[in-house]
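Tokens for chain A. Residues wanted.
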């Protein structure tokens, strides 16, 4: 029995990377998917692949940094399918730079706007629908929202905000039956690192980490689907993430050193 068959699932950032892989993994269970991101052509590619696996798919080009656009996304989903069961807040971007090399600290506003508020806006719009279905909110945060690697200060701050917000919301929503699953992936193969902005505000162009050593987006998507089916509180994607959480309490300086080594930071 497929737990998510017929469920209406809204996914932001579904045009590439983890969002696309998640849509494709879910599609096998024949849900009704609502796919959002800014680039219509890439969303249509995702939708075509999902339909070929048996899912229904609606494409709604959306910039999640706009509260109005997020309301329109949720309205379009509810109008088309009559309900919303799961909202996956996945759209995001990264910055890879030392904070003291940024010419303008306001660069961090963009990350907060997309990674944090871009999850808050769809959630606010979808809540009335999710309460009716006793549905689930999935927040794709990051392990950088639990520990804080160097070179990722702005990104880590935005993901800490995501985790803080959704952990609080989970308690507020307990009586309503709406669940909250926080996903905190370790590094995953995707475009996010090559698209990440450097200190000069331009995309790095190349990933600063060897992508072949990272978890594939497909494997990450399988772990997320399992987390959705079980309505888990927290989904981690690597053993070192689980160790890092305990390490922060028991040996925080060691975790700092390991985090610096992982991102190649030499001080
Ligand atoms: N890859 C990793 O190592 C990793 C690790 C931990 C957490 N994560 C998180 O996982 C999520 C997905 O990242 P990814 O690695 O799959 O990156 P990705 O391949 O770069 O995908 C990012 C997605 O977000 C969409 N997006 C970007 N800006 C948007 C906006 N303003 N409005 C709507 N959609 C927007 C992009 O589509 P358009 O450009 O078409 O809008 C794309 O679909 C992010 O929240 C990221 O922080 C990633």
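Reply:
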């Amino acid at each position: 029995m497929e737990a998510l068959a017929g469920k209406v699932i809204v996914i932001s950032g579904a045009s590439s990377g983890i969002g696309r892989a998640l849509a494709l993994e879910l599609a096998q269970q024949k849900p009704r998917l609502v796919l959002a991101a800014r680039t219509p052509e890439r969303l249509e590619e995702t939708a075509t692949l999902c339909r070929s696996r048996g899912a229904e798919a609606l494409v709604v080009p959306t910039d999640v940094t706009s509260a109005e656009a997020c309301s329109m996304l949720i309205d379009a989903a509810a109008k088309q399918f009559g309900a919303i069961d799961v909202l996956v807040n996945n759209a995001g971007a990264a910055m890879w730079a030392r904070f003291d090399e940024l010419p303008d600290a306001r660069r961090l506003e963009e990350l907060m706007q997309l990674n944090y508020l871009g999850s808050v806006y769809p959630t606010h719009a979808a809540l009335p629908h999710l309460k009716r279905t006793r549905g689930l909110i999935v927040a794709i945060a990051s392990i950088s929202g639990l520990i804080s690697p160097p070179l990722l200060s702005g990104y880590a701050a935005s993901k800490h905000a995501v985790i803080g917000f959704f952990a609080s919301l989970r308690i507020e929503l307990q009586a309503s039956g709406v669940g909250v699953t926080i996903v905190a992936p370790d590094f995953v193969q995707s475009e996010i690192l090559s698209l990440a902005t450097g200190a000069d505000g331009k995309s790095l162009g190349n990933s600063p980490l060897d992508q072949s050593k990272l978890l594939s987006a497909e494997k990450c998507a399988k772990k997320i689907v399992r987390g959705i089916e079980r309505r888990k509180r927290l989904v981690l994607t690597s053993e070192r993430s689980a160790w890092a959480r305990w390490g922060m309490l028991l040996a925080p300086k060691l975790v700092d050193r390991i985090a610096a080594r992982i991102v190649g930071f030499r001080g």
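The first strand starts at residue 8 and ends at 12. Strands lie at 8-12, 32-37, 56-61, 86-89, 136-140, 179-184, 234-236.
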